[in-house]
Specification:
alpha+beta, 15 strands, 34% strand
Amino acid sequence: MSTWICDGTMDGQTYLEGGGRHEPWENTGDHCEFCGLHRPDHSSSYGGEKSDLPSDVSSTEITIDDPFPKSYRPLILGGLGLILLFLSLGFLGTQLLFPNSSVSPKEKDPEMIASPSSPLNFIPYENSQYGLKISYPDTWERQEQLMITTGELVTFFSPKNQSSVQFRERVILSVIDLSHHPHPLSLNEYSQIVLNKVASKSHLSLTPTTLSHRKAATITFLSQMEGKDVQIREVWTLYNNRAYVLTHITEQDPSKSFIVDAMIKSLNLTL
């Protein structure tokens, strides 16, 4: 335990209550055993060890130089204000020039489907008689016709090109009545009927899929139409003794048509 020396004085003044100045006395407790003077918080000039610190250390004021003098502060604040103003104007200009740049795919209108070049606006077609609804691009042409023999209900044509010989990509929606069969057909039975009709076509491929959340089948093959070599893709499902068929006809690879894929996925049977 540390000791301290008391001589009956404090800060150069005699501690009269303890009897005044006395010979130096070594103490170990908090009070002088000779005069009762309380032990100081730190060594001082009275009757004990002197501190190595300067006598005016307690009154020394520590200051930190201000890197920005007061005379410069208005200029600094003004500069910061200009920077914030330019940033705000830049953000506003970006929104005006590119209004869709900050909109994520999930925030876009559900009827807006992005393509590699630009978004497409899809609009609905609905037929309450046959209980169906499908979406198609508003730039495509719609032709409604009811073909009793084939069941064709409506055809959607891609936009016209300046070329008069262009083959227009199309999607045909058909509803085929199957009630004349002796018994309700299964999906496999109807698929076999379709296969028999196109058995002579080349590059024939039949695979299972879904349509309007129902089990379905799809077939692709090559054919000719309007003097052009075309590829045909048909997708169908059965519901309520009817076959709902989407036929995609194009000169290109039908598996790479994201627009028609979106149309097929949008088909909804409402009956």
